[in-house]
Amino acid sequence: MAQIENLEKLARLIRYYILVSTTEAGSGHPTSSLSATDLLAGLMFGGTFRFDADEPGHPNNDRLIFSKGHASPLFYSLWAAAGKVSEEELMTYRKFGSPLEGHTTIAFRYVEASTGSLGQGLSIGLGTALNAKYIDKLPYRTYVLLGDSEMAEGSQWEAIQLAAHYQLDNLVGILDVNRLGQRGETMYGHDLEAYEKRIAAFGWETMVIDGHNMDEILGAYEKAASVKKKPVMVIARTIKGKGVSMVEDKNGWHGKTLDREQLALALDELGEIDRTVRGVISKPEDVRPVEREPRAAVEEIAYEAGKSLATRKAYGNALKRIFPRFPNMVVLDAEVSNSTYSQIFQGGHPERFFEMYIAEQNMAGMALGLHSRGKLPFVSTFAAFLSRAFDQIRMSQYSDANIKFCGSHAGVSIGEDGPSQMGLEDIAMFRSVTNAVVLYPSDAVSTEKLVEEAARHKGMVYIRTTRMATPILYNSSENFPIGGSKVVRQSEKDVIAVAAAGVTLHEALAAYEELKKEGIGIRVIDLYSIKPVDTATLRKAGGVTNAIIVVEDHHPEGGIGEAVRSALADYDIPVHSLAVTKIPRSGKPAELLDFEEISGNAIVTKVKELI
Amino acid sequence: MAQIENLEKLARLIRYYILVSTTEAGSGHPTSSLSATDLLAGLMFGGTFRFDADEPGHPNNDRLIFSKGHASPLFYSLWAAAGKVSEEELMTYRKFGSPLEGHTTIAFRYVEASTGSLGQGLSIGLGTALNAKYIDKLPYRTYVLLGDSEMAEGSQWEAIQLAAHYQLDNLVGILDVNRLGQRGETMYGHDLEAYEKRIAAFGWETMVIDGHNMDEILGAYEKAASVKKKPVMVIARTIKGKGVSMVEDKNGWHGKTLDREQLALALDELGEIDRTVRGVISKPEDVRPVEREPRAAVEEIAYEAGKSLATRKAYGNALKRIFPRFPNMVVLDAEVSNSTYSQIFQGGHPERFFEMYIAEQNMAGMALGLHSRGKLPFVSTFAAFLSRAFDQIRMSQYSDANIKFCGSHAGVSIGEDGPSQMGLEDIAMFRSVTNAVVLYPSDAVSTEKLVEEAARHKGMVYIRTTRMATPILYNSSENFPIGGSKVVRQSEKDVIAVAAAGVTLHEALAAYEELKKEGIGIRVIDLYSIKPVDTATLRKAGGVTNAIIVVEDHHPEGGIGEAVRSALADYDIPVHSLAVTKIPRSGKPAELLDFEEISGNAIVTKVKELI
User: Fold this and answer.
1) Which residue from A minimizes the CA distance to B360?
2) Which residues in B455-492 are b (16+ Cβ under 10 Å) and which e?
3) Full DSSP string of A547-591
């Protein structure tokens, strides 16, 4: 068959590119690329894959995600074989400034999302597939290249179970079973049945093929395209290093390149390469999603000053309220929507709410996939449990992700449920992510406003909410820009400034009243924007008082106190920290705030100690 | 049968305790406790479970872990029914200071490890089971109570696959399929076959039973005890709220207690309770493990000054070297032992090395289980990928865990592999954990010494290592106490102090030489202990210079710079930060250090800017 011959010719060219580019770079993963070369050449140039290479952002392009991001030489070589990367550019692989990075990143124009931390690509693909089926309602398909080693990651099984649950028949996993991990054999080696049994048990359609037989490869993709109501896993037996006998199926060749001499031998073995042949990719049908028009006018905020409402509830209200203004919004929650109150959004816009069950890693990965398809994901669970998805959150910074995370039940003030449910490291976690914005509202009005600010901001935003109801402090007409703060109490002679956010702001207000009785004036600052933080206001407060006390329902390390210290590093303003330093217990919120010395009482004591 | 009748009587008593203690507390999870009551009454008092309640630490006691930690009322009530918790103590449930916390914690003497973040208990149980089979070689069994909702967590499937891999036939999961999660039905509802198919596909022995039929329950445990070479999952169909018809199988009753009136009705329905009946637990065989004697004398460290070696390699050397001195050591690695160099330990002591494959969450959970059985786990992978286990690491602080984590490939200095592989948030992550120690050696000698300090320290320690080889700076006779630092360069007139650790220390030394040529003296401090940090030395350095520059291959937030600022908060010492603030790329290590302005050049520039 001419098609098979042509594909094999292309595969040979791709192998050539993989070998020369990695030897030139002196590092990289040629053997992990070679095992999947036939699988991917067959996919891209065999007719199944539909992609307009001149419009990578075409909403109906099939999506291709390399979960095994270290097979980047294969990815770049595929696009070289498609005529979209020059040989010259290919030789910049891994060089500083090149878009052809060591693991696939969005610096390269055909990458959907940056990968390289294993076990994340399938979740990203779930996001793009869910978007196609339920949101954009487009016929594009999503293909995810998976390594066998990474199947040990639990996140894969989170994705596998959820894809079946949502009957994503537009999702095809390509499992490259090359037997060898980084340091030796994988758990199942070449036992393909082990994978098939497990994946099929989760409700996927599975096919086991020889990953170096082009006929079987094409047949599998063709069949995969016709499966209904189930995602498909093509499980391929492959040889690591296939095509270069000196490294084929050999341990010790992971992440290792050939030297010049070895390269010469390998190229000899490859045989004649036609460097002029180019693969042709099928074009997608030119259909585009029906876009909802953003509507400027949305419901007004109407909270009564003095009444109380939990910020987590205001978060739910806000999501529902602002949706007409941000019609790309999608809301995900990990089986706690009645605690985070994302269920309020679900009630209003059920078609844009997706239940993720208790699987936070996959939830964060899916959000990245949705983001890559132009959606605006709001992702919520308990603040404590977002720690589960730290690796996915960390990776999102490398995809310029426009994702909003909301963590509820922050701090010891949740009370009786005890430490396992208390978010006490979440601010540190999100602050440590480049360009992530961290917001921490203290009342319903500021929550509503900040959720909207978050939606408007391009980039990652974390919103921290509180379990208990807190009094409404602000008028609905007030604004809460990112990077701002509010001076909520001040006198002519403030001796100390207290910066607080969330529940501790209310403790600071209690301290203010208490101290006022004794004639001691303190300035109280609502530091609702933790990152970026309002340096100007803090500096000013520090200038007119003796010191700043930062009070936070979070551990001191990486928290608000350290954010303030860093902001004021260039000024001689003493910054004192009241934070959670003891292992918390079950108990009443007020008992715990006292125990950790972040309560109104503790603030009063600290102020008196300092003056 | 008298036994069945007696067990049913005990189950009734336990239900009574669950109901009265949660109503008294006013919060908690009675319905999630009631669904598992028969399963657990049958286990503890049915003869299978062997536990010496007077010696909870008996090394041959069977272990019982509540992965669904919110079923704590059941756990405490079981021990009340065993006569080990008084009715008075039971009524302190969730009160401040009571060991009977909202989710099971080690404050209660029969708890193996604190739980409450779902999806972690099975990994902990894997640790105790692995210990029994391969380390202590004892016949005790491990039982883990699992909720159906938490089966969505990928960590469960990591544990499931590894338990089968290690043929842990001493591990029994008890899956309480009560159909309802927190906010509604689980993914599979009462489809028990869905669970059975999936779990069996992973190589477990499975049994499906009626979780309220005592006969079936006892039969399952008996059978489970005789299964060989496979872990066992007892999959039980249960009713949430079983025994109280007003809440049975009803949505909206998760984490909700009965009020006094409802309680009265429920108790009526329960019928007569014999509050004098007490359950009897079988005693374990009094066998104890053969303990290895610690040996004081170990090999000497022998590194040649001036030569270079990667700290990650020194980590491997140290593990192997100190083992005779710390014979409780166990080393775990997530399929990268040839990168972290834990393989050096494996080479020397293969019986104490366990391959965890690429499944970091389960690895961290298993470490906690091993810790609970008196072992000293050293856990390694890339620093970046430890973020995957943040929730397990976070939870470990609530179990007083004596676990040592090592993250290799820290920072942008790894070079070409690109950002996905760079640990840039790991210091922030570990600093945010209460009482965790964070160490960051810069050469082979200090690594060796710090690994030993870590082993000696009781508590969680994080050791950060570097990919590239770095010159050996220290003499083997030097000591590196936790909380210390080293002034490695100083002159009579230092204008600036540069505090650095790991790779940036070498950059600081390069800057020192460069500046010296121009007659500018700087003090260079090796801040190998990030937490606790050496405040005294920093303060002294700040006192005799104009400022401190902290240089770190990590994001600024939560990193070394903020640690130093917090340490010096009470002193007027300017602390400047050079850290990773731009999204890194692939490139040569030196290019990246320059790009991020944390190189010797950047330090020179900063010093000149400040003087």
Assistant:
1) A153
2) beeebbbbbbbbbbebebbbeeeeebebebbbbbbbee
3) -EEEE-SS-STTSHHHHHHHHTTTS---EEEE---S---SS-HHH
Nearest CA in chain A to B436: A557
Q: How far apart are CA A218 and CA A288, in angstroms?
A: 28
A293 is catalytic: no
Nearest to B201 among A118, A201, A395 (CB): A201
| Contact status, residue B323 vs residue B295, Cβ threshold 8 Å | no
Is B557 in Cβ contact with A390 (below 8 Å)? no
Question: Which of B417, B468, B553, B580 best probes binding to A when mutated, by most A CB atoms within 10 angstroms?
Answer: B417
Per residue in B547-593, pLDDT tens? 999 999 999 999 999 999 999 999 999 999 999 999 999 999 999 99
Residue B569: name the closest of A428, A557, A508 by CA. Answer: A557
> ∠ at Cα A215 (A213, A217), nearest 5°?
70
Q: Is the pTM of this model over 0.80?
A: yes
Nearest to B235 by CA among B215, B220, B250: B220
Q: Is the ipTM above a cut-off of 0.85? A: yes
Give pLDDT tens digits for B478-499. Answer: 999 999 999 999 988 999 999 9
Question: Which tokens in the block code for residue A516?
Answer: 């006022």
Beta-carbon separation of B421 and A103 below 8 A:
yes
Residue A320: CB atoms within 10 Å: 22
State the smallest CA–CA distance between residue B537 and chain A in angstroms.
19
Q: CB of A250 within 8 A of CB of A241? A: yes
Which contiguous run of DSSP H or E holds residue A594?
helix A589-595
Distance CA A190, CA A278 (A): 33
Alpha carbon dihedral B224, B226, B231, B235, in 10-degree steps, equals: -20
Average pLDDT for residues B384-404, to the nearest whole number? 98
Rounded to whole angstroms, the Cα distance separating A67 from A395 reads: 12
Backbone φ/ψ region at A439: left (φ over 0), alpha (ψ -120 to 50), beta = beta
Q: Are B36 and B209 in contact (CB under 8 A)?
A: no
Helix boundaries (H) for B46-153:
72-81, 87-90, 121-130
Cβ count near B527 (within 10 Å): 28
Angle of helix A360-372 versus helix A154-165 axis, rounded to 10: 70
